Amino acid sequence: MDEDILTSSSSSSKGVISQAWTRLAQWYQGVVDRTVPWQKSRWLAAFFLLLGFMVRILFAQGWYIVTYALGIYHLNLFIAFLTPKIDPAMDFDGEDNGPELPTRANEEFRPFIRRLPEFKFWYSVTRSTVIGFICTFFECFNVPVFWPILVMYFITLFCITMKRQIKHMIKYRYLPFTHGKPKYQGHEDQGKVILTK
């Protein structure tokens, strides 16, 4: 009898903890989902978070390995953001230079779909920066290292990676940045008001 009571009380406490965790996860997801339309505000907040992280690193004079790892991770995210979801280099149809994105109006329209969407890019940058910021409060992550070498490695890696990405963009003729839909203006309506007497 006592075992039944003990089993039922432990399973009910697990159920309460599980429900509380589920509610917390749903609340968190709701907050994240509500930020989707505010693209500029999200990126501004992420920029200030990164700026706060850099100020923390400069004043603490340490945690350079954490900063280097965060920079490499952000570079990896940025490359995934610039790369198309379906890589034209992998979709080879027998021509010398492989398939290309359409460049003329009479060709088939294929929109540029990113490997890493903008929202997931922002979310990963923000989450990793918060994790990196938290790591700066633990001495076990403050590995002594000669930081100018890390800066040199990062700059070299950035230049090599971006050179390869730009060559890929030129070869397959795609531009990952757009500023919205083109706006067409009809010939008959140019927005001028003509007053007649």
TrEMBL record:
Compartment list: Membrane
Membrane-crossing segments per the record: 43-59, 65-83, 145-162
Membrane topology, record value: Multi-pass membrane protein
InterPro entries: Rer1 (IPR004932)
Role summary: Involved in the retrieval of endoplasmic reticulum membrane proteins from the early Golgi compartment.
Annotated family: Belongs to the RER1 family.
Protein name (Swiss-Prot/TrEMBL): Protein RER1
Organism per entry: Henosepilachna vigintioctopunctata
